[in-house]
Amino acid sequence: MGLIHHIETPNILTTSLDSVFNWARAKSLWWLGYGIACCAIEMMATSMPRYDFDRFGIIPRSSPRQSDVMVVAGPVTKKMEPVIKRLYDQMAEPRWIIAMGSCAISGGAFADSYHVLKGVDTILPVDVYVPGCPPRPEALIYGFLKLREKIKNDTFVGGARKSAELYVPETLTEEVERAVKEELLVKDERQTEEEEAGQDGQR
């Protein structure tokens, strides 16, 4: 974007359609709250006076047809799978998804359950992951700010979208890896305890 200086009144900007569209989209994200469990309480807290999500132009909507972003806050059960797919299909393009909390990212404490999906990214394309159990409102705000950065680099006019891959903020990569390792350790310990209990029962 550049300013033309060789005219009498410098009021003309040169830019691209992508820059204008992405600027408008990034500054006015209307999100569809898909609150399923305890993460939804933290998600609702971001709209309260203390954090005031609206100051970022991020406004909650109750209709998928008016929403740009779906915030999945909580574990997605197999019974809920067709519902969340229907809501996603009703959202207009371009649309984005934020997975909030370990349950939405990997199934969390319910990963070994028969009725919970191991992450919403198994059925829908996730753009930003916000780890935590549950993540604080500041973490969700940070996730939205990272989504803004991604939107600004997207290309919608004159070519295919650049950002087709799943996106994990660099500053959160170590935290995600640490959380995954902790979950695996807990899972191994639980499995060992079950095996020991089974051996004791056989005795």
Overview of the structural elements:
- By secondary structure, this protein is α/β, with parallel strands linked by helices.
- The longest helix is centred in the last third of the chain and has 33 residues.
- Helix 2 links the parallel strand 3 and strand 4.
- Helix 1 runs antiparallel to helix 5.
- The protein is elongated, with a radius of gyration of 21 Å.
- The protein has one domain: Rossmann fold, CATH 3.40.50.12280.
- The protein is 40% helix and 13% strand.
Which tags fit this structure?
five-stranded parallel beta sheet, 6 helices, alpha/beta, 40% helix, 13% strand, single chain
Topology:
Elements: E1 2-3, E2 13-14, H1 17-26, E3 30-35, H2 39-45, E4 59-61, E5 69-73, H3 81-90, E6 96-100, H4 102-106, E7 128-130, H5 137-152, H6 170-202
Parallel strand pairs: 3-4, 3-5, 5-6, 6-7
Antiparallel strand pairs: 1-2
Helix pairs in contact: 1-5
